[in-house]
Amino acid sequence: MKQFHAIAIDGPAGAGKSTLAKRLANELGYVYVDTGAIYRTVGYYIWICGIGGKDADGVRRLIDDVNVAIEYPGDGLQHMLLNGKDITGEIRTPEISMYASQVSAHKCVRDFLLDTQRDLAKTHNVVMDGRDIGTVVLPDADVKIFLTASPEVRAKRRWLELQEKGAKDTYEQVLADQLKRDEQDSTRAVAPLKQAKDAVLVDSSNLTLDETAARMLAIVKEKLNA
Ligand code: DC
After folding, report:
1. In 3-state terms, the chain is what percent helix, strand and coil (to 5)?
2. Dist. CA 185 → ligand 1 center (Å)
3. So where are the chain's domains?
4. Digit-coded pLDDT (tens) for 60-104
5. Nearest CA to ligand 1 atom 4
6. How far apart (Å, rounded) are the C-alpha atoms in residues 54 and 111?
7. Rounded distance, CA 102 to CA 105, Å?
8. Using one digit for the tens of pLDDT, what is the confidence trace for 199-214?
9. Which fold has domain 6-225?
10. CB-ligand 1 contact for 38 (6 Å cutoff)
11. Which residue lies with its CA nearest to atom 1 of ligand 1?
């Protein structure tokens, strides 16, 4: 019998996955695992090494030098350590978003990170969010939710978030970057973003955050018979 429960939340960039998955994890007392942050950490390393994210040979050459560790020191944040250095605050820029999307298309990167993600689910109750959690990483997850919203709504939310942080990006830039990432993430050959057959679709375009959270919790409770 399975010892731990796993809830997989997949969807495109800006659908609100991290906010909602974190909230769900808090409500359930599960560990929230942000797998995008893991890809961002690899993307960040490739970026500081001055290699292009699409450079397959360059990425393959460097991937063995990467040591990714995840820590939960209890401040509500998932801390990412790259070769021992905490880079949690460095990986949220639009540039690293694009790098993460590019490096995540390489099979060597996905293979490299697969066990790290699976091991977390073997040892904890998890709410894990990403692009391929329900399809590849945890195909036997107890609950799978595919969370999406229209591209315009997602871009608007991301743009407002960036504005709050003082970034100068225009809405049009954010939308263009997001469409590019959507395209890259869903058309790559290895583990593309797609809804698992047994995932429940939640479209948050016309829902508030609270409404979306309530819907997700109801789905989880129903599936777990809680
Ligand atoms: O969720 P995010 O925006 O932080 O993810 C950054 C990039 O990482 C995303 O554009 C694609 C990649 N990613 C992935 O390929 N698979 C995952 N499970 C999570 C993220």
Report:
1. 50, 15, 35
2. 8
3. 6-225
4. 999 999 999 999 998 888 999 999 999 999 999 989 999 999 999
5. 36
6. 17
7. 6
8. 999 999 999 999 999 9
9. Rossmann fold (3.40.50)
10. no
11. 36
